[in-house]
Amino acid sequence: MSPSLSVILWGVPKPTDGPSPSGFCQKLEAYLRWASVSYTHGSEPNPGKAPKGKVPFADVTLDGKTERLSDSTFIIRHLIAKGSAADPDVDAGLTAVRRADSRAWQAWLEELIYPAVVTERWVVDANWATTKQEVFGSMSWPLRVFLPWMLRRRITGLMWAQGVGRHSQAEREVIVAEFVDALEAKLSASSGPYFHGEKMSMFDITAASFIANSLGTKGNPYFAGLVLKSPTLVSFARRVNGELFPEYKNVLNLLDDAQGELQKKAV
To answer: Of which family is this protein a member (predicted)?
Structure first.
């Protein structure tokens, strides 16, 4: 890491001892932890005010020059291209074929599975009350009243336009379960504890981040429930998040408890 590099990670407000309510903010922070990049948090409760109308975005200062960048993937690529931070896939020794494989899995997770999880959290009425209290309950009036209504309306529209919001919840559960089964099979077949073997790759960082994001809320019980029933995914999520975020006691305890229950059932 360049000694002159500093980053302000702008995202939705998050607890100091738990994951961000945004999976993409969590992904970027996990990468910064992995790469040992110095960063601080900036809070933007309304993603609509961010560049590109979404979080995360970042103020990246290198050699005294500050650039404002948007989108977790492009922020990470910028840091790697500038030689300011390491590339997990290079560090893991991935071939071009394995990098392509990772990119396909990342697209599957980010462009289909996460929207399905977000829809479960923000659009399904049974989960919305929980999400609303978790995300906005500590805000002052009138933000506590106006912002949830505005963001839910916006997210519902985005999920409809994206396509996943047009499916029924039962159909979305089929989509999510297929991914969980496939990820479990892929990790089980790996030659090491990570997706491609013995070293953490960018996909490991991404997948563990979205799992942590989902376990940090009670607003997506279906996806979280699938993860917690899988010994492979529990072990994977515990390993990566325990290494990068040892302060996430609630998430790590949840994974430890799930691991204990799964071990009892296996006896």
So the answer is: Belongs to the FAX family.
